[in-house]
Every structure is written in C-alpha cells, then in structure tokens.
Amino acid sequence: MIGSDDRKDGLGTLETLTTTLIDSINGYRDAAENADGSRFQEIFRRNADERSRVVEELRSEIRRLGGNAPDDGSFLGATHQRFLDLKAAITGRDDQAIINEVERGEDYLKEKFEAALKLDMDPEARTVVERAYQSVRQGHDQISSLKHGLEA
C-alpha cells in the first residue's frame, strides 16, 4: 500500500518531471523559431506538441494524486533559456548549433526520467511516467539521429 509519504514523494517527482518537460517545450519552440531549415522547424514544432500532450497526462496524474499541477517551467530552465536568447543575439545560430543545444536538453530530460523510474511510486503514476518516458526517449533518439546525420 502506498502511504502519504510515498504519495508526496511521487507528487514531487511528477511535478519535477512536468516542469522539466515544460522547459523542453519552451526549448523546442525556441529552436523552431531560430532554425533556418523548415524541415527542422517542423520537427521541433511537432516535438513541442508531443511534449505538450505528455505534460497534460502528467498534470492529470498530479491532480488525481491531489497535487497542484505546475503551469510553467523551472527557474533554472527559464534562466537557461534567457542565456540561450542572449547567446543567439550575440553570435547567431546555425542549425547544427541549435540541434546540439536541443540534444543536450534531450540528454538531460532522458536522465531525469530514468532516475525517476528508479524511485518507488504509486503504480498508476509509474504507468504514466513510463508512457511519458517512451515519448521522451523517442524524441531523444530522433534528435540524436538528426545530429549525427548533420555531422556525417
């Protein structure tokens, strides 16, 4: 049986994953705005939309567990985003640089989900996190493949 401490821990994990995913949505939208190639813009927009869908699933699970679902990303994510905006204004970006940044974010996100899946949590919450992780892993692998394709 899941106790209230486990529920609280599970809520914290779900909230952290949700804010991190929101950071990822913001990163994908930023990447779509700054990419030169329309092919990349479309991929980034689709990934942002997919992440939005996953965020809604996590929010729904947070509410089911009695928590307050986050509406925005993390402070760290916002700070990182501002730095990227400044960097873009100063140096300009090409598609390779954007994809490198997106892949770095994907690596971070994948690690967060893998760490979360090692924790004890409500079985229904675990199922939602596992589904979200599958989406995250697909996005990660897609961006990694794009990066390696550009490097070839």
UniProtKB/TrEMBL annotation:
InterPro entries: CHP02284, DUF2383, Ferritin-like, Ferritin-like_SF, UCP029477. Residues 13-118 form the DUF2383 domain. Pfam families: DUF2383 (PF09537). This is Chemotaxis protein. The lineage of its organism: Bacteria, Pseudomonadati, Pseudomonadota, Alphaproteobacteria, Sphingomonadales.
